[in-house]
Design a protein that fits this description.
The protein is α+β, with helices and mostly antiparallel strands. It contains 6 helices and 7 strands; from the N terminus they run βββαβαβββαααα. About 3% of the residues have low confidence.
């Protein structure tokens, strides 16, 4: 992965770095105590093992910190091998070439966006795959005639992620049988 741009907000002495573009070679140049090291520390927040302390939040931005804001975010370019690894782990996703990693002041977990698909590490196995799967189901249902669609119970796809594969397959089979009848 190659970092292509990043932004730091409300972290220690940095109110907002603005979007900083990174080329193949980058250097931080500035006077002593100007925030060079702080920006690098903020970028370490993109590592899932790094912890955020209340002391890391900018004291002067209390009002802004009442809302959820991205403290650090990095836009990464993926090579083909990395794209293949993601595709292998999440087969429902399209081929991904760019990925955004970010941390917010309200959520202690590292969060991910793969282009237009939001993914959150908390949701384990499917990692938002359920939401994408449900969306595909509803898109499919939109293609069938209305008099058939109203007979199909879609409540299951609007609920929480199924606890295991068996439950999912059972409900999926019910839907297929309903569509065929």
């Amino acid at each position: 992965m190659r970092l292509r741009k990043f932004r730091v907000r409300a972290y220690r002495c940095i109110h907002d770095s603005g979007e900083i573009t990174v080329g193949d070679l980058a250097a931080f140049i500035g006077r002593n105590e100007s925030g060079k090291t702080t920006i690098l520390h903020a970028l370490t927040l993109l590592n899932k093992d790094e912890q955020i302390s209340q002391l890391d939040l900018c004291d002067e931005m209390d009002e802004e910190l009442k809302n959820e804001i991205r403290l650090a975010e990095g836009d990464f370019e993926l090579n083909q091998h990395e794209s293949n690894i993601i595709k292998e782990k999440f087969p429902g996703l399209p081929n991904i070439k760019r990925m955004k990693i970010f941390r917010t002041n309200k959520n202690p977990q590292v969060q991910y966006e793969f282009e237009d698909i939001k993914i959150n590490e908390d949701k384990n196995e499917g990692v938002d795959y359920w939401e994408n799967f449900s969306k595909q189901i509803f898109e499919f249902l939109d293609t069938i005639p209305n008099h058939l669609r109203i007979n199909i119970n879609t409540k299951f796809f609007e609920e929480e992620v199924p606890k295991n594969q068996e439950i999912l397959m059972m409900e999926w089979q019910k839907l297929i049988i309903k569509c065929r009848s």
